[in-house]
Amino acid sequence: MLLEILKVIILGIVEGITEWLPISSTGHMILVDEFIRLKVSPEFKEMFLVVIQLGAILAVCILFFHKLNPFAPSKGEKEKKDTLQLWAKVLIGCLPAAVIGLAFDDKIDAIFYNPQTVAATLIIYGVLFILVENYNKGRKPTVRKLDQLSYRTAFLIGLFQVLALIPGTSRSGATIIGAMILGTSRYVAAEYSFFLSIPVMFGASLLKMLKFGFHYTGSEVVLLIVGMVVAFVVSVFTIKFLLGYIKKNDFKIFGVYRIILGILVAAYFLLIK
Description:
Layout: H1 2-18, H2 25-35, H3 42-51, H4 53-63, H5 65-68, H6 77-112, H7 115-136, H8 151-162, H9 171-181, H10 186-212, H11 218-245, H12 252-272
């Protein structure tokens, strides 16, 4: 049991880092799982790798609690209205992924959840990050604050989020690329991506839990809680790091990293395994 807890701690660390950096948590989880296989049922593992995200999403809720709370006593009427509008934009941005995800969740997993797809998407979006950054060089973003984000732009970013249903794409990567193409600053792109993740990841976790059922063994409960707690703690530091990093740097380094990781994933599964 102690060995399984150690494995879950490692998975929680990987989740907490890769969920927020645009480098694909799925790609990393597939690689890590190859070397530290959890001794649990396939059904529990499938559910665990999704529900562990709840720990990561709680980090966003706590770090941005004041910004996301429309009922904060310290906020004036305009600030409360702006916060409610932010939530409306988040929900609008979630609609495309929610509709398509609910309709095709099982089919998407059956068709695309494999190392070849993950390797390809890692590389493709790595190249896209570099191309988008080069395209934006010298261009001034038209959206520098979240309250400048229109409902139309929010919905269009949500369409980009649909791409993240394909493993290896990275939810944050797809939404950040989409937001930047549509004229937002890197900071707004990252922040809005964080907020979009709240309903999406809560919904995905609930869906997986309902499919699995609520009949957990004692050890499964322990593994799930440990994984979520570790993912939460690591996520807090990762989110703070990313928001500080992009104030002075672009996303090219993540593009390069994705390309290298994609090549490693392809090499491992096609040549070694």
